[in-house]
């Protein structure tokens, strides 16, 4: 079978589309790795809050030496760190339009690339061969 410029171009276009989907929706890579979570800090990094992609508090770390502080001062640092993480999340949301999870669409485009393109190539090859036979006088 000869090289298929149409199928090759179609495959190239699908690959470009897949890369665009990864760029637009980096929250979940092809390997399932998640983007860097929003993090906020307070008390010169001695309090650290990390949020999940949905905005819920994922983790909170407090330097053990800060436990000696009074509860009011300690909770102020915690609130500052959590609010800083929320600000980071909001900044990211403002920088890019909110999109749903495009991983299913990405999987479907990959499936089209992997299954439909070879079929398209075989179909075009069969058409080309039929056209060549017709040009030679209809021999089958």
Helical/strand content category: mainly alpha
Biggest β-sheet: strands ordered side by side in the sheet: 1-2-3
Question: What is the CA-based Rg, rounded?
Answer: 27 Å
- Quaternary structure: single chain
Q: Outline the low-pLDDT stretches.
A: none
Major sheet, described briefly?
3 strands, antiparallel
Report the span from N to C terminus: 18 Å
* Number of helical segments with 4 or more residues: 3
Helix content: 55-70%
Estimate the strand proportion.
Answer: 5-15%
Compressed to H and E, one letter per element, the order equals HEEEHH
Label the overall shape. Answer: rod-shaped
Arithmetic mean pLDDT: 78
Record field, number of beta strands: 3
Features:
mainly alpha; 140 residues
Description of the molecule:
- This protein is mainly alpha-helical.
- The chain has helices at residues 5-24, 71-95, 103-135, and strands at residues 39-42, 47-51, 57-62.
- Strands 1-2-3 form a three-stranded antiparallel sheet.
- Helix 1 runs antiparallel to helix 3 (103-135).
- The longest helix has 33 residues, at 103-135.
- It is rod-shaped, with a radius of gyration of 27 Å.
Question: How would you summarize this macromolecular structure in one to three sentences?
Answer:
This protein has 140 residues and is mostly helical. The protein has 3 helices and 3 strands; from the N terminus they run αβββαα.
């Amino acid at each position: 079978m000869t090289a298929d410029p149409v199928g090759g171009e179609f495959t190239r276009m699908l690959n470009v589309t897949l890369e665009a989907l990864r760029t637009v929706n980096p929250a979940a890579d092809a390997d399932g790795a998640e983007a860097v979570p929003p993090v906020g800090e307070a008390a010169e990094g001695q309090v650290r809050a990390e949020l999940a992609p949905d905005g819920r508090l994922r983790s909170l770390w407090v330097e053990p030496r800060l436990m000696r502080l009074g509860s009011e001062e300690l909770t102020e640092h915690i609130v500052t760190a959590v609010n800083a993480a929320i600000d980071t999340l909001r900044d990211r949301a403002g920088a890019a339009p909110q999109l749903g999870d495009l991983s299913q669409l990405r999987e479907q485009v990959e499936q089209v690339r992997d299954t439909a393109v070879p079929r398209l190539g075989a179909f075009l090859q069969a058409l080309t061969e039929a056209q060549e036979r017709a040009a030679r006088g209809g021999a089958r």
